[in-house]
Amino acid sequence: MxxxxxLLNNKLCETLKKLNINNIQIxxxxxxxxxxxxxxxxxxxxDTFNVILENLKIAKKENLNVNIRxxxxxxxxxxxxxxxxxxxxxxxxxxxxxxxxxxxxxxxNCSNIIKKKDFFNYRLNFNNxxxxxxxxxxxxYPKQNILFCGAYSEQSFVINWNGDIYKxxxxxxxxKSSIGNININNLKxxxxxxxDLNYIFQSECxxxxxxxxxxxxxxxxxxKENDRNCSIYKFKLKEILQExxxxxxxxxxxxxxxxxx
Length: 261
Ligand code: SF4
Prior knowledge:
The chain has 261 residues and is an alpha/beta fold. It has 3 domains: 2-134, TIM Barrel, CATH 3.20.20; 139-154 and 193-261, no CATH class; 156-192, no CATH class. It has helices at 10-18, 32-38, 48-61, 77-89, 116-132, 198-201, 211-214, 219-225, 232-254, and strands spanning 2-3, 23-27, 65-72, 96-101, 158-159, 164-166, 180-181. A 4-stranded parallel beta sheet has the order 1-2-3-4. It has a 3-stranded antiparallel beta sheet with strand order 5-6-7, with no helix packed on it. Helix 4 (77-89) runs parallel beside helix 5. The longest helix has 23 residues, at 232-254. Bound molecules: iron/sulfur cluster (SF4). The site of iron/sulfur cluster has 12 residues, from helix 7. GO terms for molecular function: 4 iron, 4 sulfur cluster binding. This is 4Fe4S-binding SPASM domain-containing protein. Keywords: 4Fe-4S, Iron, Iron-sulfur, Metal-binding. Its cofactor is [4Fe-4S] cluster.
């Protein structure tokens, strides 16, 4: 489950565990002042950072597996290191941490978006910071990624603050794309899958040599911009593998090699 973590108190953690939901992704956008400027409540500026930080401690106590995502652009990348220090100081460095790529889904004037081809360098730089603050760094080795996102799956839903249900997180707030509301009794979901895998296999992706790694990219963006926004692995596979080999060699030497996991 992906959540902003704001309401993740003891009771909810227990409920999630009863429901067998053990893996959660929570996003923090940097140190408190950077995070709070981006992640406001509807009623104004509040310290959402510290509420989420306290909730992360509860999640840790409840043994939930938490993946912390830091969505970055050129403005908050520098803050990601300060965030790692705060998490370390709060004894939260057993969680997985990864960078997320901010995309412009809504044609807003976002001049701070990182170019996709540069994002990998940010990840490499971030990996070194993870080690510095005692976190596990992420493996650069490509993984098979069967579905790009939940919009391909029958069992994945995005819930808006008012209970409206969507298939694609880029549609949030666009009422016409909503497929129901969780507050309605006897809810019948109108549409189970937004995209079909044939959509990938009938495109240029079918002959791409990294297809199972990328799975066709974001269908929403493709339909909007007619651009596949191809994976970095398509262009830099060799360099990435070389980088991974160097990283593994270092880990073997310092005894932290984890056999590619
Ligand atoms: S890298 Fe591009 S062409 Fe290859 S599978 Fe991904 S989106 Fe399709």
